Amino acid sequence: MPSVQAFYTNKTVIVTGAASGIGKALAKVFASYGANLALCDRDGELLVATAEALIEEHNAASVITREMDVADPQAWQSFVNQAYTQFGHIDICINNAGIEGTSAPVWASDFATLERVMAVNFYGVVHGTRSVLPYLIDRPWAAIVNVSSIFGMIGAANAADYCASKFAVRGYTEAFRAELAEIYPHIQIQLVHPGGISTNIARRDNSQSFKRKFLTTAPQKIAEHIALRVMRNQARIVYGNQSGLVHMASRLLPLNWLAKLVGKQMRQLDMQNDYRLDHPGFQVPEKKVDK
Ligand SMILES: NC(=O)c1ccc[n+]([C@@H]2O[C@H](COP(=O)([O-])OP(=O)(O)OC[C@H]3O[C@@H](n4cnc5c(N)ncnc54)[C@H](O)[C@@H]3O)[C@@H](O)[C@H]2O)c1
What we know:
This protein is of the alpha/beta class. It has one domain: NAD(P)-binding Rossmann-like Domain (Rossmann fold, 3-Layer(aba) Sandwich). Helices cover 48% and strands 13% of the residues. It has helices at residues 4-8, 21-32, 44-57, 73-87, 111-136, 160-183, 208-214, 219-231, 243-252, 255-267, and strands at 12-16, 36-41, 63-67, 92-95, 142-147, 187-194, 236-239. A 7-stranded parallel β-sheet has the order 3-2-1-4-5-6-7, with helices on both faces. It binds nicotinamide-adenine-dinucleotide. Residues 16-17, 19-23, 41-43, 69-71, 96-99, 120, 124, 147, 149, 194, 196-197, 199-201, 215 line the site of nicotinamide-adenine-dinucleotide (NAD).
C-alpha cells in the first residue's frame, strides 16, 4: 500500500463545512498530502480565510471555495460542476457540514429547529451524495464519506433532533453502500461517527456544559484518522472522545440499560430547568371538554 501522502496527491477532495472544526482540519490534512480541494461552507468569509491560510502554508495548494448552504440542491449542482471544471476529476466527497440541535428534551424543543437540523445534517448529505455520484463512476477509485456521529448509534437525552438526523445519515449511507457495492464496487461508501471533538459546533448557551465535558479530542487527530481510514476503506470510522465506549455499549447493552447510562451522564449537566414536572411542554394547550 502506498503512503497516505502518495495516495492522495492530485486527488480532488470535496469537503463541506470546511471553515471550522473537523472540516477545516480535513482540508488542512488533505492539503498537506497534495490533494486538490473543493471547499464549501455557509460562512463564506471564514472559508476564504481558511483557504488563504492553506495556500500560504502549503505553497500553491490547489483550492477552490464556495459559499453555500448544503441544504440547497441547486447550489450543489453548480459547486460540483465548478470542482470538475477546475480540476478535471472528482475523487472524494466528504459530507461533513452539520449543526447542533436544540440541546433540550423533546418537550422543550421546537419543530423549526428539527426541520433545519434535518435539512442540513441529513438532506445536506443526501444532496451531496446524489450530486457527486455521477462524477465518480468513471474514476478508477473514489469515495463518498458521510459524517454521522456517536449520536447516530445511541439515542442521547437532549439530542432527539440531532440524533434523528445522524441516525438518518447512518441508515441512508449503510443502505447506499449495500446497493452500490453490487454494481460500482470501486466507489467506497463510508460512515464517520465522531465522538467528542473540540470544535465550535456547540454554540447555544444550553450546550456549553456539554461542550466543556465531552468535546475534547483535537480536530486534527480525527482528520488524520479519517484520511488513513478512507484510504484503507474502513466502512465505519469511529473516533474521538467516548466513541469506543459508546460504540461498544450500543452493540452490547439492552436499550433500557443504555438509556439509563446515557441519561445519567446527561443529567450531570446543567439542564435541570427543562426537567421540571410543570414544564410548559407537558401542558395541554387548550383543554377541550367534550359535551
Ligand atoms: N464536534 C463533535 O464533537 C462532533 C461529534 C459528532 C459529530 N460531529 C459532526 O461533525 C461535523 C462537523 O462538525 P464540527 O464539530 O466540525 O462543527 P463546526 O461547527 O466547528 O463546523 C461545522 C461547519 O459547517 C458549516 N455549516 C453548518 N451548516 C452549514 C450549511 N447548511 N451549509 C454549509 N456549511 C454549513 C459551519 O459554518 C461550520 O464551518 C458535523 O456534521 C457534526 O454533526 C461533530
